[in-house]
Every structure is written in C-alpha cells, then in structure tokens.
Amino acid sequence: MRKIVLTGARGALGTSLRGPLSKMCDQLVSTDIQPGPEGLYDNETFHIADIAKFDEIAPLLEGADMVVHFGAIVDEKPFEELLGPNFVGAYNIWEAAHRHGVRRVVYASSIHAVGLEHTNSGADTTVAHNPDTFYGLAKCFAEDLGRMYWQKRGVESVCLRILSCTPEPQNIRALGTWLSHRDMVQLVTRAIDSPVVGFTVIYGVSNNTRSPVDNAKAAFLGYRPVDNAEDWAHSLFAKAGIPDPQDKALTRLGGPFAVVPLGESGVAAIQKMSEGQKP
C-alpha cells in the first residue's frame, strides 16, 4: 500500500496504531491537533492539523489509499463542543477521501452509537442506532455518512464500534466490553487488508466469554480476537460487590454513558464505576 493517513495519532489508540500501520504502507501520514511525538518511524511524517478545518486536513489525504480516522473528542461534552471535531470533522474526512480518490475509511465508531440498547438483547451489527449521548449521536452521524458515501460515491468504510479499549479491563461491565490493545490492532489491520468491504460495521471487542454483542455478520473481515476479560473476573467481582440489577450502567450497552446527563462526562462516570462508586 502506498499511503495511509492516521488521524488522532497522539491519542492512546492512535499511538498504539502508528507502529503497525507503518509496516503496512510505503508512507504513513500521522496527524493530530497536538504536537507530534519525539520519535517517528522511518516512513512516517507528522502534521499538526484540525480535522474540523477542511483546508488543514484535506491536503493530507492526497494520494492516500486509506484513512484510519481516530481523531475526535472521546467523551461526552456539550453539543457545541463536539460539533467541530466529531461532526464536521467526520464530514471533512469523507469528503476529502472522495475528492482525492481514497479507497476506504476505517473509522473509530463506538458502542455509544447503540448505547441505550439493552445489554442482554444480543445486539448484532444491524441493530438500529440508539445513541446514549451527544457523543454517541456523533458516531451515528458518521456511520450514516459512511454508508451514504459508499452508496452514492463508492468510498468504502469499516466502522469499528469500539466498546472499552484499555490495557486491562477496569470494572465488571468490562468483562463483556473489553477490547485489548492487541486485539484493537488486529481489528484495524483486518479492516485495512480485507479485499472488499463496501460499508461494514463491526464491534470492537475482545474474545470475552461474556461479550454482549454479535459480530457474526462481519465475520468475513477475518477478525479473530484472542484476549478474554474473564481472566480478570475474580478480582473485578471482589472489587465491585453485589451489582444492582436495575442499574442502567450495567443493563445498557453504553454503560455509564447511558445514565449521565447529556453534555456531562461519561469518562468520569466510568472512572467512578471502576472505583466501585455509583456513576
């Protein structure tokens, strides 16, 4: 592959992707609104750019085969704060991809696009959008944008509905939702090297015994996760105590994001859950 563009390259997940992506192409263009890292890979260049500004981000996509779009605010915020990076930024990526003939966009979507769906509903990749926050609404917008750009303009998309991507599972909810960094890298790799994807949604989740979602309809991508949050079950249950069966933070796919007021941090609520407090 000639060129891959990675947005959000300074984030936790973007940082984990830079090395693997650099091995998949002749040229890796990494970008973020923050300054670049101290060291770059031999075939990597870094550009400071605001994805909410078309004239800053669009030129970076020229000559690219694929865009791995992980750039966004990764928490619930007031709508006005999310509008630029999460809504307009998504439009800018797909529109620039179309104008420059980019083959595919690999997008970091989120479980929060369906966050108010019941945990025990067996949600597959065709379940209707059911966002839990403005943040989740932005993911719905981008997924619909990707579907439209495939059907109207032929730009392929793989939307990765990431659940809980951390080095280790942090709470009892994560026994089902955890995505290890190793599996995250495999997921992105399969989204890139699959020959034909059209428009595809897949859940970003590890091989958890208690996974609440079903990826069967995206099996053609070849994603076969290897890590399992069950290895942490004993210690997480000991820390959590007895769960409340009426707690929407446990009974909805979005976890604590399903219970926070619109515009207020869901990440802070997840931290409370991890500390054994009510979100």
UniProtKB/TrEMBL annotation:
Keyword hit for Isomerase: yes
Pfam families (alphabetical): Epimerase (PF01370)
Gene Ontology molecular functions: isomerase activity; oxidoreductase activity
Keywords: Isomerase, NAD, Oxidoreductase
Record-annotated NAD-dependent epimerase/dehydratase domain positions: 4-162
Family as reported in the entry's similarity comment: Belongs to the NAD(P)-dependent epimerase/dehydratase family.
Official protein name in the record: 3-beta hydroxysteroid dehydrogenase/isomerase family protein
Species of provenance: Ketogulonicigenium vulgare (strain WSH-001)
